[in-house]
Amino acid sequence: MNNISWRGIRAFISVAEHGGFTAAAEVSGFSKANLSQLVTELEAALSVQLLYRTTRQLRLTEIGEGYYERCKLAMQQLDSAAEWASQSTHELKGLIRMNAVGGPLGEDLLAPLVIDFQRRHPGIKVDLDFSSIRVDLIASHYDLVMRMGELPDSSLISKRLHTVITRYVASPDFLRNNHQIKTPNDLKNVPLICGSVDYWALSCKAERVTIHVDDAIKVSSGRVMRQAALAGLGVTRLPDVYVQEDLKNGRLVEVLPDWSEETQLTLICPPLRHQLHRVRVLMEFLKTHFEARYQCALSNGPSEALKSNSYLY
């Protein structure tokens, strides 16, 4: 281990992430020749080949792939430890990378709170990403994630924000033109609108029914799913904040109300990132204010909640 250079490991990680020495050189600031030498010395110290090199392409060997994954995680932990050691206990500054679900939950409810947090703490910058991909928090670069559903890893730090009620809804016109939906199995005979899932799992007390939605209208946006339901294209399943105003005004009707689902909306943070003071403070701020904003959205609609910031000041 004494013969292995940390610079060599970082050079290898950069080359692996960017797919070649030229691209890695442009990003890292090192020359292509310097990166090549560092990786060659690393391979010699390990007595293994990490990269296949040809004149046309470069790719990781099987050992190289495993070594890259382990080194990337180790470097993230070292960087987090260094940042923790150098941070000021009292001064809030630095970058927070956050990933969240989009739609009203992220864009109308969470984002205004994040903006207000940055207004209060001008030394902090929050990069807020609404991509819908499932994030491996341990391996990713995110400091904080907002997600719906059960936690995939109990070792992560979590704070519950709100219990979301998911409802099954359709337009009055659609229901007039279709058979009544009295049981979950009736959903098998009507058009459905869903996201990227392959099935709906409905629960009522001890009873559980699975409805496959392979032939459903597939939409990756909850807002568009709502619009499709309002247009009478079928039954959809959405969190209450999307449809509560429509249910009040009769634009949508809830079907199978006994089968509505409770899902936790949670903030999730890797243990190492939770040690950073700025990340903990943001988590507490969101925990303190999110519930009131959610209730405002249920009462007045997400658009009105977006306008109302009075309780924040």
UniProtKB/TrEMBL annotation:
Keywords: DNA-binding, Transcription, Transcription regulation. PROSITE patterns: HTH_LYSR (PS50931). It holds the Pfam family LysR_substrate. GO terms for biological process: DNA-templated transcription. It comes from the Bacteria. The keyword Kinase does not apply. InterPro entries: LysR-type_TF_proteobact-type, LysR_HTH_N, LysR_subst-bd, WH-like_DNA-bd_sf, WH_DNA-bd_sf. GO terms for molecular function: DNA-binding transcription factor activity; sequence-specific DNA binding. Residues 4-61 form the HTH lysR-type domain. Belongs to the LysR transcriptional regulatory family. This is LysR family transcriptional regulator. It comes from Neptunomonas japonica JAMM 1380.
